[in-house]
Every structure is written in C-alpha cells, then in structure tokens.
Write a structure and sequence with these properties.
With 211 residues, the chain is mainly alpha-helical. It contains nine helices and no strands. The N and C termini lie far apart (57 Å). 30% of the residues are buried.
C-alpha cells in the first residue's frame, strides 16, 4: 500500500510545485537555454529511474521507494508507471523549450517562457491552497471553488508583476490570459501539469505587440 505521509497528499504534491518555482524562475531569467538543457537532462534521468524501478533493478525496486511514489498519486494517475513527477517537469520545461526554439520577439517572450512555472507553480498551487481551505462556492459540475480560481488568477498577476522582466508586455492581455488559464484549471478533467502550461503559452504568444 502507499506510504502514509505526515501531510495530506495534495499538500505534498503542491510542495514540489513551490520547489519548481524556486528552482526554475531564477534560471529562466538568467539563462533560459541552459535551463532548457538541464530540464532535458533531468527528464532523461527521471525516465531512466522509473524504467529501472519497473524492471526491479536493485536498488530502484525497493518497496519504500514504490510506496513513497504511490503516495503522491491521485485519481487521474493510472497504470504501472509513476509519471506524475515527470508531468510537472514537462509542464515547466515545454514552454522554455518552445520559447527557445521560436523566433523572437513574441515566441521567445520571457513571459511566455515562464508560463509553465507560473501556471503550475503559482496559479495552480495558490488555487488549490485557497480553494481547499477558504473555498465556499464551487463552480457548477466541479469541486473546484470560485475563491480558489480568483486567488490563482491574482497570484499569477502578482508574480508576473514582481519579476524583473524588462520586456514590454500588454498587461490587459496578460490579465486575460491569466484569467483564462485559471478558469481552465478549474474546469479541466485532464492532467493539469500537462495541459495548463501549453495553454497559457499559446495565449501569451497571441499577445498584441507592444512597442
């Protein structure tokens, strides 16, 4: 059976989102190309470890490791492979990769490159924390709360506001994009670590030019 954590599974999962923000944001601002390379290397290592675990290669097949990994899963995770940690890494890395490959200025916008880190590490985390503790009004057909969605939206805007990014940006469009991704997080039944980042990235790439 999965290992019993000292905190709720959702808290344990979101703590890794916060860690991703602390680790990836400075790197994305200082050296985006190197961050993209590092994420690719980390993904390869995680995939190799999971394959070794599934192949029961010592010491990766240890029961303690399997129980710990199982404790972080939720109802959307299924199958023999444990991929949730790779989903988070991919969610943060894909916008960085796309922004590195895309021609400037809009495709390579720092705001767009940070979309995975912001949507998952900031918006999704704050929405979950506020919704689970202070939320009272739920969206129709879902357990996600209106309070959580609004808190996630404001957190995204506040995070973008305090970042030392010198590039011009259309703040009204940025607010609209942040609201749309917050609403998408509340309504989607997909794995949010995979879908939120590309969605916000695509929206930000449609931003009108600012001189």
């Amino acid at each position: 059976p999965p290992q019993k954590l000292p905190v709720a599974p959702i808290v344990a999962r979101k703590s890794y989102h916060i860690l991703a923000v602390l680790m990836f944001t400075p790197a994305a601002l200082l050296d985006r190309d190197f961050l993209g390379l590092a994420c690719a290397g980390a993904l390869a290592v995680l995939l190799l470890v999971e394959l070794l675990r599934q192949g029961e290669v010592w010491p990766f097949h240890a029961r303690r490791l399997a129980r710990f990994m199982g404790s972080l899963l939720d109802y959307r995770d299924s199958g023999a492979l444990v991929l949730t940690h790779m989903y988070l890494l991919l969610g943060c890395a894909v916008p960085v990769w796309l922004a590195t490959l895309a021609p400037p200025p809009r495709g390579a916008s720092t705001y767009a490159a940070l979309s995975g880190i912001v949507a998952l590490g900031v918006g999704d985390t704050v929405a979950s924390a506020v919704g689970s503790t202070l939320g009272r009004w739920s969206w129709p057909g879902t357990e996600k709360t209106i309070e959580g969605t609004l808190a996630g939206w404001l957190a995204i805007m506040g995070f973008y506001w305090v970042l030392p990014i010198a590039e011009p940006v259309a703040w009204p469009w940025l607010a609209v994009c942040s609201l749309l991704v917050s609403l998408y997080e509340a309504w989607t039944d997909q794995i949010d670590n995979l879908v939120l980042a590309p969605y916000l990235y695509a929206l930000l790439c449609l931003s009108p030019s600012v001189e």
